[in-house]
Amino acid sequence: MSLKQKTISGLVWSFAGNFAGQITSFVVGVILARLLSPREYGLIGMIVIFIALTSVFINSGFSQALIRKKDCSETDFSTVFYFNSFAGIIFYILIFFAAPYISVFFGEPELTNITRVIGLIIIIEALTIIQNVKLTKEVNFKLQTQVRLCASLLSGTLGIILAFMDYGVWSLVFKSITESSLISSLLWIFNHWRPQKKFNFKVLKELFGFSSKLLASDIIDKAYSNIYNLVIAKFFSAVELGLYTRGQMFKNMASESLTEVVGKVSFPVLSSIQDEPNRLKANYRTILISTQYIISIIMFILAAIAEPLILTLLGEKWVGAIIYLQLLCFVGILYPLHAISRNVMYVFGEGSMVLKLQIVTKVLALPAILSGIIWGIIPMLVVMIFSSIVEMMIKISMAGKLIDYPFIQQIRDISFSFFLAFFIGVILFGLNYFISLRPIWVLALQLFTGVSLTVLISEFAKNEEYNFLKKTARDGLLILFSWRK
Description:
The protein is mainly alpha-helical.
């Protein structure tokens, strides 16, 4: 299979799995949101902060190091597996004994037991990291897609049943543990890799030369992405955190999830051509502008339809999430530029550059955090948007220097996407205020108008990104429905 075919196949299966998984999670989330309250989601949001940080330490950047390394041996994989497993157990023990203090910190007595149970995810995911690395390195996303979709369906069903039985926040806890357990179990059953009785400290030392910078970078990144949840949880309430995380869920589903699919596939592909500058630049440019085209349009549409969307799907009790979602969309629109430019630095082994950029750019979060503490959540989100713009400018400038792709040229290449998305967003936002219909009909009209305008304008302008995506989608469908695949 050629690099192009492998890339398209990886994208198709990864996107198909992500899309199906997101749809499943979305439907489950809507049903659970109608059965549960914002406070119950807020309680889970408090714990996720700590789970996310521990996962960084467990991985320690070794996943990226193994994917980047061209000639990995079984000793490499086995050594990292045993390290991850040991780290997972240690961090679960720490979380277990820290649970009462977490509960006191947030002033929520229920958090002690919730933390100790949901914390088991730490061990489960530690045992699964190398299974995912092996499949990712082979650009084999078909199995991952099938496993994650199956786990999402079964765990979602369980969560809904428990919510109907009035288990409250515990329905979310058991849903999360079941999903992680199923993913891990199915990967171990259907992926044939098994650790060997090999462990070599030299392997850890060699990989740590690259991964140590990524570890520090990821710690900063995770702390940054969760600090806002921490501020809301500490200085406001579980209800406000629940509303915020619902808005964040919609934004992430459209922005981060799609970008991570592209990033997950593009990293091993770009790593395989790291010694071919022209191909590397061409592939990076294609990935960047096509991803930004999709995300820009989706984010502006999502911001415009936020009110009828939340009222239709979640109901009046979630109305407070509307403004959070709208503002978060303008943060999410820049996510592809952050993530894909960072991948280029990983490809070149510039872990130290990533770390320095993380330190510099995350200092930009301080004004947003202080705004949240002093003035409230909405001012915090407004400042967050401006901070994200500055961070994006720095990152794509540095990545561009590595592959001779100047900042101005990158901005010029993605400018059509922004202008098109802005125009469509304004039209749809106007529909929401000038048409007096039930929210569900306004939502349907906005979606139809948004899709129609996107296709018509892109076809008329003979847009490069649109044509590339249309051809990729056509090739992808052939792969997806091919019996040989």
